[in-house]
């Protein structure tokens, strides 16, 4: 009896209420939780987990949508890794794109963010202008514009002719240059890492700079000894996000090469190759294997980034 | 979003000489102009007489010519009006789906206690890292068997099932910041979970719902890959697909019309930029969105 009343008195306390959960009995609480979670659960099993397992299975088969999948073991993977010149081309193009565009984009983003962090008037307007290309950049319209800028009679060549009397080639139809026009398109969109850098710079206490100045440290020393180390978590974050995005780039290469990845596979981004295999040739099994290799590449990159981060990323705590 | 973020984004005021400050602004204005030059050139190019586009890098057309817009609008066998309508329907329905689907899941994850919650939450976080390429082909096969190819359904229905885990995560973070006392008091008053979600959570979460809605709309509007795969009948094309077909059909012959339609396709995103710039920029600064 005493025990019973103790439980009762405990139950009437708000703390106990909180620890037992807000809504009635256990069954009722579970039911409420799963009712709210139902759409996500359907999506998770039907559109994420199920398809992911299905594509893993398909990657070991040949499948053209018409006949049922034909089990071929690891043959797709073996062919991709040992005997597929287009895969090698796509890897080379994608890695070149990632290695060039990500560091340059981050460098621009950081430089502009530092310029903005000096307390200038009209910051909001400047920041908006520099962010705009990043917002519009992934659309087909901007890819169309880029095609025109770097065409043989495009704006770039017109400017080169007027300024230097230099007759430029058609940049987008020359296999030596086509990829670099896409790298430039990516760098032009440095707006969103810039905003993240700007937020990061704000968190560096100004008294650190004041103290360094009193000790006679110049601007360059302040940058390398204060700004850069304290910003490493943000640099790391931006680097990982932008690299993953760069691996998945598709639209600009598709528009500029009219879906071919040309000239001579010079803009054959990995995702473009995957698209061609799946929806151009309907080699669904082969394309699934390509997709899983992309997952492995991205996971390895992410894992190594996090492992490497402990050596250069500086955390306060 | 919060006072703290406003403080983060507000610049510290520094005194510097008038000359230095004029110099800084001159450089920044020059750079801004350089950044926007291609876009400005595309806008002015769309108003030029067709023969004038090449041979001048000036931004001012010799005469205002709307021919590009007229030729572009009906440059394919279906007008761009149709493509805009399709894009609008898909973007609006997908945006509603994202907000509804993700906020239901986020409410469950952040406010309801039920068996297995942490397990599902961990799985949800796991899907954040999964590139969509691995689910692409089986999803296509599924929608093909459902007879949804060449309808906008594959681009809309998944959003109602909260497949964009990123937005769930964003909302969970925000919901956790809302004082728990509010819903506890409501429970005492006999409120059902649904009433709490509808009457307390959603009204208090307008900033994060708006951020999620704006980014969903822009990303769906700009999406090229999804429509490219699922829509092959020209009557179902979105603006992005229409533009792509237009590039293929005109080649490099009618840039004025191509620029005109490109400009029109950017208008909705640009309007969001004009009116919701603060939410966009804060959204990126506080959550690290990719673009």
From TrEMBL, chain B:
Q: Which cellular component terms (GO) are annotated to the entry?
A: plasma membrane
Which Pfam families does this one have? BPD_transp_1 (PF00528)
Please give, as recorded in its UniProt entry, the membrane topology of this protein. Answer: Multi-pass membrane protein
Q: Which UniProt keywords apply?
A: Cell membrane, Membrane, Transmembrane, Transmembrane helix, Transport
Family annotation (InterPro entries)? MetI-like, MetI-like_sf
Keyword flag Mitochondrion: no
SUPFAM superfamilies this protein is in? Answer: MetI-like
Would you tell me the protein name for this molecule? Carbohydrate ABC transporter permease
Q: Record the organism.
A: Neorhizobium lilium
């Amino acid at each position: 009896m005493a025990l019973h009343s103790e439980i009762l008195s405990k139950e009437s306390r708000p703390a106990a209420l909180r620890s037992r959960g807000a809504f009635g009995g256990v069954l009722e609480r579970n039911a409420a939780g799963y009712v709210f979670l139902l759409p996500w659960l359907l999506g998770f099993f039907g559109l994420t987990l199920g398809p992911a397992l299905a594509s893993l299975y398909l990657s070991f088969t040949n499948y053209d949508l018409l006949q049922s999948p034909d089990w071929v073991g690891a043959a797709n993977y073996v062919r991709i890794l040992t005997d597929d010149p287009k895969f090698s081309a796509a890897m080379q193009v994608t890695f070149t794109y990632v290695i060039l565009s990500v560091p340059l984009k981050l460098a621009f983003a950081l430089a502009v963010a530092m310029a903005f962090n000096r307390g200038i008037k009209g910051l909001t307007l400047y920041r908006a202008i520099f962010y705009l290309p990043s917002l519009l950049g992934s659309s087909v319209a901007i890819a169309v514009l880029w095609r025109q800028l770097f065409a043989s009679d495009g704006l770039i060549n017109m400017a080169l002719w007027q300024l230097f009397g230099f007759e430029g080639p058609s940049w987008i139809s020359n296999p030596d240059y086509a990829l670099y026009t896409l790298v430039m398109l990516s760098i032009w969109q440095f707006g969103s890492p810039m905003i993240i850098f700007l937020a990061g710079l704000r968190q560096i206490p100004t008294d650190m700079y004041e103290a360094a100045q009193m000790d006679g440290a110049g601007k360059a020393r302040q940058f390398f000894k204060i700004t850069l180390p304290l910003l490493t978590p943000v640099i790391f974050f931006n680097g990982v996000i932008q690299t993953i995005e760069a691996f998945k780039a598709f639209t600009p290469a598709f528009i500029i090469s009219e879906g071919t990845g040309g000239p001579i596979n010079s803009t054959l981004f990995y995702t473009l190759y995957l698209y061609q295999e799946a929806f151009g040739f309907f080699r669904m099994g082969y394309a699934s294997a390509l997709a899983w290799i992309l997952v492995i590449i991205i996971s390895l990159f992410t894992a190594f980034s996090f492992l490497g981060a402990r050596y250069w990323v500086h955390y306060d705590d | 979003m919060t006072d703290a973020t406003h403080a983060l984004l507000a610049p510290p005021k520094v005194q510097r000489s008038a000359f230095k400050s004029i110099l800084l602004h001159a450089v920044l204005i020059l750079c801004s102009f350089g950044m926007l030059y291609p876009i400005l050139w595309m806008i002015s190019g769309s108003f030029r007489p067709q023969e004038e586009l090449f041979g001048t890098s000036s931004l001012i057309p010799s005469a205002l010519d709307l021919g590009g817009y007229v030729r572009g609008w009906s440059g394919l066998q279906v007008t761009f009006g149709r493509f805009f309508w399709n894009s609008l329907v898909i973007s609006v329905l997908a945006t509603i789906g994202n907000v509804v689907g993700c906020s239901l899941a986020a409410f469950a994850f952040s406010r309801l206690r039920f068996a297995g919650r942490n397990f599902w939450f961990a799985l949800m976080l796991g899907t954040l890292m999964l590139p969509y390429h691995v689910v692409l082909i089986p999803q296509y096969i599924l929608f093909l068997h459902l007879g949804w190819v060449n309808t906008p359904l594959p681009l809309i229905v998944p959003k109602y099932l909260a497949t964009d885990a990123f937005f769930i995560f964003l909302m969970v973070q925000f919901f956790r910041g809302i004082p728990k006392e509010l819903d506890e008091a409501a429970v005492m008053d006999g409120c059902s979970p649904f009433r709490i979600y509808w009457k307390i959570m959603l009204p208090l979460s307008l900033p994060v719902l708006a951020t999620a809605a704006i980014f969903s709309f822009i990303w769906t509007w700009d999406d090229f890959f999804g429509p490219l795969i699922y829509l092959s009948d020209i009557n179902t094309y979105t603006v992005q697909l229409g533009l792509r077909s237009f590039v293929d059909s005109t080649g490099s012959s009618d840039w004025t019309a191509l620029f005109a339609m490109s400009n029109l396709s950017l208008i909705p995103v640009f309007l969001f930029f004009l009116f919701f710039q603060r939410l966009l920029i804060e959204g990126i600064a506080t959550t690290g969105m990719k673009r």
